[in-house]
Amino acid sequence: MESKYNIGNSKTGTLPKFQMKLKPNPIIFSNKNLPSSPKKIKLSEPEHKKVIISSNNSNFHNKPKISIQEQRRKLPVFDKRNKLLELIKRHKTLIILGETGSGKTTQIPQYINSARLQENGIIAVTQPRRVAAISVALRVAQEYGQGMSVGDVVGYTVRFEDVTSKKTKIKYLTDGMLLREAMFDRLLMEYTVVILDEAHERTIHTDVLFGIVKKAQRIREERNLASLKIIIMSATMDVDHFSRYFNNCQAVYLEGRTYPVNVFYTVKPHDDYQASCVATFFKIHKEAPPKLLAKDPDVQGPPIKVCTLYAAQPGTQQMTVFQPSQPNTRKVVISTNIAETSVTITGIKYVIDSGMVKARSFHPATGLELLKVQRISQEQAWQRTGRAGRDSEGYCYRIYTRSQFELMKKTSIPEIQRANLNTVALQLLALGIHGLHFDFMDKPPKEAILAAFEQLKLLGAVENMDSNNLSPLGRKMAKFPLDPRFSKILLSAQQFGCLEETLTVIALLSSESILLSPPSKRDQAQNVRQKFCSAYGDHITLLNIYREFNNVGQNNRRLWCHEHFINMRNILHAREVRNQLEDICKKCDISISSCGSQMDQLRKCLLTGLFTNVAELHRDRHYITLDRRQVVQIHPSSSLYGQQPHFVLFTEVVQTSKCYLRSLTTVESDWLYEIAPEYLKIRNIRFNKDS
Ligand code: CDP
Ligand code: MG
Q1: Rounded to the nearest 10 degrees, what angle do helices 568-587 and 538-551 cross at?
Q2: Best of 344, 346, 383, 387 for a ligand 1 pocket test (most atoms within 8 Å of beta carbon)
């Protein structure tokens, strides 16, 4: 949901009344009276908007430029360097806690490397987000200096991108990538140190890695192989819970430098938190002391520079957040939860916390995995607040009441307990482990594991529900870094003679959206892309766009993308992804084929993986999912919106006030008899015409 408010018009939105005005007797919390050991946090991307206002950066400008090495020495972690190295040397497993920005991610791997604690192995550092893995690796390579570029001593590996070499000693990688590597070598012998960073985020991948590295460490010890050191790093977390899981390992706390933050709650609840955030921003902007800003009597407050920060954003745009603004300009950062802990922006003085987050959740009962806006946990609220106190005393405006805060969950639920486990179940089976018997730190609900096994069985990946054995098809499916439903589609393409088309569609579904829809030009974008629209729906519309893009000459691409509101970076990325998937297909001996304009072939092929994602037209625009009889609707952004095909296959579900399906293709019910007869029987699905 994009904000419909036009920043720049202070009349929009209702201004919430805060319990406290800007100054008198604020509740001050500082590092000391922060909840002592806030419990585990789980966030997932993409998350909901919150607003961060950075103070005027003129201070920043007046500071003499300090060298990058000087900057490293100023980080809180620097003083603790020797002590840390000693602890790392002494303990085979260590938990390191420290405020965001204290230097954990960038410095600790470098310290280990300079002391050669990793000996002949490589240091792996995992990040839940690909942006973080890439940007941190770039930064560390730069700190390394000596003409080193990323990919030398410091490298990174994220899905579909490997920037490492034989020289690489410190490797930043997404947690998903390390998990894939474990599928090829369960003991992770390439590494002697594994750092699981941002552990408090409790992504599924990090949670599974906890078990994998713990086991690898034990087995390597038993077999007298090179030992494996495990370091768990995090902003805040339930240390006891983590320590207990890792055989009561040692934990250290790096004290950061933080300043007090004044916290304000609203007097009454505000349902329209977006409007309230915007209104609060303008109040602060007008009233807050402009500090060193030159006062212009004609301007109510200083000029504003608005930046956005979210995981799916193009990298160059993301970087603008870190650039200092012009003198006398106030910088406003509108961010998702990515700014909560994984990135550090300097100069933040005010935080406006919407209290909301967009998170993924899976409901075994409905079989749907939803993206849903929901309340944050108290722990997340404190993290957001903390962003205001990095450089000096700050202010945090919570767009919720104190009693709403008290009703929030203390900690967030780990993703593993609320997400679809298909991919994890398949990955574990590839490691020879049945999900029900895995050593999870927090066990996922049994129904979710069983639902995943059922799905794998229906896809033909396992022989039976209790077995640890993958079928030959399942073993091939595990080779793809994809949801098993998508791998199944690629592996079925030969049968339908449509590998070319299938590769394109799956690559596009695995990348960020290639469609740009700026709110002010939405109609224009839709009109100019109308010619690509397929009556079969969104997947084929995307295929048409991709085909056309490939026909445009190299020199005209930028202009073509601009004219058609296509994100060029994302479409080029999708092409890379496509190449890599094609390589894996070749290794699986699937021959290249094209169905040309025979779209039925492609539609049937999509159904071989996504037969559990079909909805049937019920009445007046309402659809019902075949799988669990859930009422849903076609999302207005779909090319099928306004039409009423009998059956649609969907790849995404979004819940706002209603449950919407996005990314659709029309299918025929007859095909289901052909493609998934066993599934129809198990669910007892019959179509109207049968009755
Ligand atoms: O991991 P932690 O939050 O403790 O800190 P870090 O990511 O190691 O960041 C330490 C400092 O490095 C930040 O305060 C930034 O000044 C700097 N940094 C940067 O300039 N660019 C990055 N991509 C990452 C960090
Ligand atoms: Mg970090």
Answers
A1: 100
A2: 344
